[in-house]
Amino acid sequence: MRIVFIGTGEIGVPTLHVLQKSEHQLVGVVTQPDKPVGRGQKIEATPIKKAIAGSSIPVLQPTRIKDPQAIHQIRELRPELIVVMAYGQILSQDLLRIPTSACLNLHASLLPHWRGAAPIQAAIAAGDRETGITVMYMDEGLDTGDILLQKRIDISPNETGGSLHDRLATLASEAMLESLELIESGNAPKVPQDGALATYAPKLTRENGRIDWKEPAEIIERKIRAYDPWPAAFTEFNGRKLKAFSASIIGLSGKPGEILRRDKELVIAANDCALSLTEVQLEGKRRMNAAEFLRGRNLSF
User: Fold this and answer.
1) pLDDT tens digits, 236-273
2) d(CA 109, CA 237)
3) Is the dihedral of CA 36, 41, 47, 49 positive or negative?
4) Are 191 and 147 in contact (CB under 8 A)?
5) What distance in Å separates the CA atoms of residue 171 and residue 173, rounded to the nearest whole number?
6) Quick check: 38 pLDDT over 80?
7) Are strands 2-7 and 25-30 parallel, antiparallel or unpaired?
């Protein structure tokens, strides 16, 4: 089959590579425009564009994929199948009609659970025990299309947003290969989603990482893991952000936000018990363990 891959984020790279190495013909890649990143605002390509650097595969980077010119360029590639993962824009009905076989989306949750932009973080923060990859036929809704297949994995007790992202990226490539085999055999299922069971994971901002010490310690601890590495859970320290990347629950109590220990441990009271922050990063500094951070500091939050 002639395939066009549409994606932006790092999570789609293993699937892109699988398509490159498959017996199918990857006739084009669509990704977001290059953007300035970091403090220096250096212009960088997306992870997907970087992943195919040096290849002869055409790369399209429209500002808006709904624009007629972008749709025309994709149509000119004559795809039989379009594969989408972590692109960042909604595809129009005109675009969805282009492939002769199907337009598939790989989503990092077990739909209809956690539709939306941040399913990986949502699953960890909610305390889910499993998640997975859903391959679905795209429609104009938000992750509402019929399901072709799902692959499941357990969420470990120490799972972070970063570790789960990487595991799901690998799982997505496996799911893609299985989906291609089913489509070619003519036996690819189409299972409607039960909208009554839908939950949502909206796009995160940096402010979502702010720790509310009035919440139970268990909820805060899950959010710390879920938001590692981004948007990163944080609290305030002398007017600067102090990010937290790992923590353990401690059987101490105090007023929410109160520092209970500040020697070799940084223990802060939550609503019910307390959390010992084990890895932190002060704004403008590097990540370090709590003991290293505490040396010589007079803490006040």
Assistant:
1) 988 889 999 999 999 999 999 999 998 888 999 999 99
2) 35
3) positive
4) yes
5) 5
6) no
7) parallel
Burial classification of residue 39, based on how many CB atoms lie within 10 Å of its CB (0-12 exposed, 13-18 middle, 19 or more buried): exposed
* Omega cis (within 30) before 112: yes
Starting from the edge strand earliest in sequence, which strands make up the sheet with 130-137, in order? 59-60, 25-30, 2-7, 81-85, 102-107, 130-137, 147-154
Give CA–CA dist 120/107, Å, rounded: 10
Model confidence, pTM: 0.94
Q: Which residue shows structure tokens 């997306």?
A: 46
C-alpha dihedral, 220 to 221 to 225 to 229, nearest 10° = 50
Tokens of 124: 């960890």
How many alpha carbons fall within 13 Å on the CB side of residue 125? 23
Angstrom distances, CA of residue 56 to CA of 3, 114, 269, 285: 15, 36, 56, 41
pLDDT confidence tier of residue 226, bands split at 50, 70 and 90: very high
Amino acid at 258: E
Integer-rounded Cα radius of gyration of the chain: 22
For 191-261, strand residue ranges (E) read 233-237, 240-250, 259-261
**Alpha-carbon span 291 to 266, nearest angstrom:** 8
Q: Is 209 left (phi over 0), alpha (psi -120 to 50) or beta?
A: alpha
Alpha helix segments (H runs only) across 55-103? 68-76, 93-96
Residue 267, classified by CB atoms within 10 Å of its CB into exposed (0-12), middle (13-18) or buried (19+), is: buried
Structure tokens at 107: 């989503």
Residue that has been written with the tokens 């102090």 in this structure: 242
Cα separation, 56 vs 28, whole angstroms = 9
